[in-house]
Amino acid sequence: MRLTFLAGAAAVVSLSGVSLVPALATAQPGGVSSACSIDANNPKELALQTLSFNRAKSAQTPEDRKKILQGIMKELSTKPERFAKNPAGYNYVLSQALVLWAVEPGMPEKPTRGALGLVSNQNDPYDVIAELDASYKAIEAAAPACKEEVDGMRQNEAWLALTRAALDASNGGKLDSAEYYAKRSMMVNAESPYPHYVLANVANAKNDKKSAILHWGHVVQKAGEDTTYRDLRNGSLYYMAIAQYETAAGQSGSEQVESAKRAAASFKQLLTVYPDSPDAANVMQAWADALTLAKDSASLGQVYADLLANPDHGTDITLTMGGVIATRANKIDDALKLFESSVKKNPNGRDALRNLAATYYGKEMFDKMFEPSKQLVAVDPNNYDAWMMFAYAAQGLAKGAKAPADRKAWTDTLVKYQTIAEALPVKAEVTGFTRGSQNSSLTLQLEQVADAGNYSVTAEFLDAAGNVVASGTESSGPLKKGERKEVTIKATGAGIYGYRYKPIK
To answer: How many CA atoms lie within 13 A of 316 on its CB side?
Structure first.
């Protein structure tokens, strides 16, 4: 199964350009909701540490900042029983200090307690991130109404730094470091989708499909409907579906069916949340493949149902793919409607024209094959099968003709077009067509039929109305009889919808 999703997508996706802009909490005393009450002014020693924290934030040098933070930690750890009656306020102030310690340049992962200013067991290591998580949990335990505020506090500079470190390590192929930082990030903020995305990529790179699927699922769940995470969610949903499908392909029996069902559900969800994806046709194909693997061919109609009912909802490409899937499902009437809708939307769509003519043939509507076939050879004039469409149509009409003269006329037509097809000096097959916002390309595979040839291949790139937007010419170079070679013609221009190339002689 050939699948693409976004240009250049890879197994471990690069998010070097991702924007991480959390809503950093500023839950200062008096700045929380009416249901949440955190008093950072009682006792007075706690209020003094709040003032010291503000001084630390505005310190001019790292040395001054560290000295102030060490003073805060010393005061908070000296006679802690003074703060026992206000655990929420105490842990709120402690968490603020720990965030600054966590992002202090040059700070080791687990400094000694003494290095931070703590008064007891000064040679023991102190896990700042673990203690930060513990302080947030203590706030929630003491003030359950403040859960929403604490969730906001967790989206802080320490979380941001760890998340960026995880992403950078993942992008750089440092899988162990990526996993480490992602798990540290989750200690600060377990509700963010980013660490799960990194862990999914790490697991996938290690060929641990089960874990990758699990974490991509967490990304989808935690991203929810938040538009900030739209691309992250959709990408994860796609990769999860691919992994589910690959897992199913390697299984058998009931296990295969269940995995394929999950893959089909994921592709369906992706198409539902992102119907305008430039790769919607590929997602449709993947959904259909998953349903087939799940032995649920009866549900193939779901893949194109909306397009059948509302052709305006689709592009010419998705309508064509819908027709292909309908053909697989042996729903020929559905396929015919979808191919006709695609050609109506883009009269120069080669794949739709070719499939439409073939579908007319399958329904023995031979007289209708000529119109799409004429347009087909206009855009793809060196394609053997395109010219043979006329011959197939004539053959069907000859068989059905009652008058000998009519039968002879259609037989002559058959011979005429078969002769044209077989007389092509070089056959061409379109192996690729990409249309972007500004750059498009057409790739033809040429097969030399005559003894030898050297061709100049010119293609015109068309807008939706069939007007020429741009053109290009490439040389095939010398070709020997039976030799095959690909030629790619590139073009620059907006609004390119289709193409046609000039007859290659």
So the answer is: 21
